[in-house]
Amino acid sequence: MGCDVIAPSDMMDGRVGEIRKILDKNDHQLVQILSYAVKYASNFYGPFRNAIGSNKSLKGDKKTYQMDFRNINEALREVALDIKEGADMVLVKPGMPYLDVIKSVKENFKIPVFAYQVSGEYSLITNAIKNKIINKNAIIESLISFKRAGANAIITYFADQISKDIN
Fold it and tell me: pTM of the predicted model, to two decimals?
């Protein structure tokens, strides 16, 4: 299909290995895999879930397969497993509450780390700016914190605003 990177977000054990095997078998060794190895069961996803209406259809919660926010060791184990299966890079989601996890993954594995600044983080900052609790410089400050923690790339809802501010 022309993909350069595949990013399975379901976090199923063995998923990365199966994808890598199929890609390699079909002569797509150059296609990279971005693993969602570190995806916490977080309250910071709320605004996104509300916007798409998934809160109404969600039965139970995602704690049955997303990580407990209190546990950093599980994150490191999952990253190690996905790298062993063929992941080329990993994602930490959400980002800001887990800067320590980003740093730990970066220090323990020589692999690119993506930080995902999710809807709840975006909403907190946006509402604080709108209510004059903080100013818009907090946006850049929040993104720089990801870089300081070791993130190689940042996925953020602020991307369009940052490009306007930079240009």
Answer: 0.85
